C-alpha cells in the first residue's frame, strides 16, 4: 500500500492484554496476543500516520522503531499513559483487551497455599475508552472494539453509544479463526449511524486496512 492517505495524522492505539497483579508472582490476564493492534499500527504507519502505541505485555515480533511505544502492565498504567497523550491525537483505536477487574489489594509477599479454598476480592478497573470518550473533541475520532460471545450486535451498539465511539469493530470469541491469537479475524465494523461493513474471514492485516477505509467514511473525516 503506497498511498499516504493518513499523512499528518497522530494515532493512539491501545493493544494487548493487561496484567493485574495478585501478589509478586501471580496476575489475572487474558488471551490477547496484540496481533490485531499491531496490524492496525502497521496499516496506519504504512499509510503515513504517526503512531503511538500503549501496549500491554505482548510477545509477538513487530517493528518497534516504526512507533512511539510505551509498555504497560495494568489497566491503570494503560489509562495513565493514554490520558497524557490523548488531547494531541487525531484518531484513537482501543484494541486492548483490558481487564475489567483487578485484585483490591496486591499482596506484598507470595500468597501461601493453605486452605482448600481461597478467594480474591476484585475491584472494578478504570474503563479507558469510556473515560477518554468523555474528553473526545469534535475533531477526534474514537474507534472501539467489542469482543462478545452472545447478543453480539446489541452489546456492540450499546458499547458504541456508552463509550462515545465513532466506529466499533465487533469480533466474536465464538467465531472460528477470529478474535484472540489468530492471524485472521472476522469483524463487523459498525458506524454510529448504523451503517456497517462485514469483513468475512480475512487476515488481521486486511481487517486493519478495512478499518482505515471505514474511518474515511466517518463524517468528521476531512
Ligand atoms: O490481541 P489479539 O490476540 O490479536 O486479539 C484481538 C482482540 C480480540 C483482543 C481485539 O480484536 C479486541 O476485540 N479487543 C477488545 C477486547 C475487549 O476487551 O473488548 P470489550 O468488549 O471488553 O471492551 C470494549 C471496548 O472498551 C474495547 O475497545 C476495549 O479496549 C475498551 N475497554 C474495555 C474495558 C476497559 N476497562 N477499558 C477499555 O478501554
UniProtKB/TrEMBL annotation:
Keyword check for Magnesium: yes
Region annotation Phosphopantothenate--cysteine ligase: where it falls in the sequence: 11-222
Keywords tagged on the record: Decarboxylase, Flavoprotein, FMN, Ligase, Lyase, Magnesium, Metal-binding, Multifunctional enzyme
Lineage top rank: taxon: Bacteria
Pathway(s) this gene product operates in, as recorded in its UniProt entry: Cofactor biosynthesis; coenzyme A biosynthesis; CoA from (R)-pantothenate: step 2/5; Cofactor biosynthesis; coenzyme A biosynthesis; CoA from (R)-pantothenate: step 3/5
Binding site for CTP: 100, 110, 145, 159, 163
Coiled-coil parts of chain: none
CC terms in the record's Gene Ontology section: phosphopantothenoylcysteine decarboxylase complex
Needed co-factor(s): FMN; Mg(2+)
Statement: the UniProt record of this protein carries the keyword Flavoprotein: yes
EC numbers: 4.1.1.36, 6.3.2.5
GO molecular function terms attached to this record: FMN binding; metal ion binding; phosphopantothenate--cysteine ligase activity; phosphopantothenoylcysteine decarboxylase activity
Similarity remark: In the C-terminal section; belongs to the PPC synthetase family.
Role summary: Catalyzes two sequential steps in the biosynthesis of coenzyme A. In the first step cysteine is conjugated to 4'-phosphopantothenate to form 4-phosphopantothenoylcysteine. In the second step the latter compound is decarboxylated to form 4'-phosphopantotheine. Catalyzes two steps in the biosynthesis of coenzyme A. In the first step cysteine is conjugated to 4'-phosphopantothenate to form 4-phosphopantothenoylcysteine, in the latter compound is decarboxylated to form 4'-phosphopantotheine.
Protein name per its UniProtKB record: Coenzyme A biosynthesis bifunctional protein CoaBC
UniProt organism field: Algoriphagus alkaliphilus
Classification of source organism: Bacteria, Pseudomonadati, Bacteroidota, Cytophagia, Cytophagales
Amino acid at each position: 500500500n503506497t498511498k499516504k492517505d493518513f499523512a499528518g495524522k497522530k494515532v493512539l492505539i491501545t493493544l494487548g492484554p493487561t496484567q493485574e497483579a495478585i501478589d509478586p508472582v501471580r496476575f489475572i490476564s487474558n488471551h490477547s496476543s496484540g496481533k490485531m493492534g499491531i496490524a492496525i499500527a502497521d496499516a496506519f504507519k504504512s499509510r503515513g500516520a504517526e503512531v503511538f502505541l500503549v501496549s500491554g505485555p505482548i510477545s509477538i515480533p513487530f517493528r518497534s522503531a516504526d512507533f512511539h511505544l510505551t509498555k504497560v502492565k495494568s489497566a491503570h498504567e494503560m489509562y495513565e499513559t493514554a490520558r497524557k497523550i490523548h488531547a494531541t491525537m487525531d484518531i484513537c483505536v482501543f484494541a486492548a483487551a483490558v481487564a475489567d477487574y483487578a485484585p483490591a489489594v496486591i499482596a506484598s509477599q507470595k500468597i501461601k497455599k493453605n486452605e482448600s479454598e481461597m478467594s480474591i476480592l476484585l475491584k472494578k478497573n478504570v474503563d479507558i475508552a469510556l473515560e477518554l470518550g468523555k474528553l473526545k473533541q469534535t475533531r477526534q475520532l474514537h474507534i472501539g472494539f467489542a469482543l462478545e460471545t452472545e447478543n453480539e450486535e446489541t452489546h456492540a451498539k450499546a458499547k458504541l453509544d456508552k463509550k462515545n465511539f465513532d466506529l466499533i469493530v465487533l469480533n466474536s470469541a465464538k467465531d472460528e479463526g477470529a478474535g484472540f491469537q489468530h492471524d485472521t479475524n472476522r469483524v463487523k465494523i459498525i458506524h454510529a449511524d448504523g451503517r456497517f461493513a462485514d469483513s468475512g474471514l480475512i487476515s488481521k492485516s486486511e481487517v486493519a486496512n478495512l478499518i482505515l477505509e471505514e474511518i474515511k467514511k466517518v463524517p468528521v473525516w476531512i
